[in-house]
Amino acid sequence: MTNQDGYAASNQVGKGTYYVKELKAPKGYSLNTKVYSVEAHWDKAKTTSTNNRSETIYTTDESQKSPGTATVGWLVGNTFYKEKPEGKDAKVAYIKKSTEEASTTTEVKENQNEGAGTVLLNETIPNTKLGELPSTGSVGTYLFTAIGSAAMIGAIGIYIVKRRKA
């Protein structure tokens, strides 16, 4: 599968040889039948992950709510509901405190023989535009057909006249 720019991308490729072949040509282009080989190998892998954590503390006491916040839902005991639950003694909930934090971790691993890595095809795969076919059935074809037919009829007429005289 390729992305919107036409690149096949995967970071879950095991070590080895892979083959790339075009299965469907873009509109207006001819299908490339060549098979390209790609060798996957790597020495190190760098992974970066970001973890986002958010925590919201709710209150039913309007005097404890964060400034500028309005009613956000309902509380039954310590359970928050966005919609008012049926048949329960729900109280209006306000945001008392809201925190968000993000942590980023980067890890570099040495390859231990086999593994998954990233592979780039360094060879450019050409796109060949389809050529235009000559038009058929236009007015010019009728003109040449008429001239050719007239020449054939004339040749047959000359042949018949010369044969009678002989």
Summary of the model, kept short:
The chain is an alpha+beta fold and 166 residues long. It has 3 domains: 1-43 and 111-130, no CATH class; 44-109, no CATH class; 133-166. It has one helix at 139-165; strands at residues 13-14, 16-21, 29-30, 35-40, 44-59, 73-76, 79-81, 91-110, 116-117, 128-129.
Structure summary, number of beta strands: 10
Lateral arrangement of strands in the main beta sheet = 5-8-6-7
- The H/E string reads EEEEEEEEEEH
Helix content: 10-25%
Class computed from helices, strands and strand pairing: alpha+beta
What ranges have pLDDT less than 50 throughout 5 or more consecutive residues?
none
Average pLDDT score: 78
Number of domains: 3
Largest sheet: 4 strands, antiparallel
β-strand amount: 35-45%
Q: What gross morphology would you assign?
A: elongated
Distance between the termini: 79 Å
| SS element count, helices | 1
- Gyration radius from CA atoms, angstroms: 38 Å
What features would you describe in this structure?
- It contains one helix and ten strands; from the N terminus they run ββββββββββα.
- With 166 residues, the chain is an alpha+beta fold.
- The protein starts with 12 loop residues before the first strand and ends with a helix.
- The strands form four sheets. It has a four-stranded antiparallel β-sheet with strand order 5-8-6-7, with no helix packed on it. Strands 1-9 form a two-stranded antiparallel ribbon. Strands 2-4 form a two-stranded antiparallel ribbon.
- The chain is 16% helix and 38% strand.
- The chain folds into three domains: 1-43 and 111-130, no CATH class; 44-109, no CATH class; 133-166.
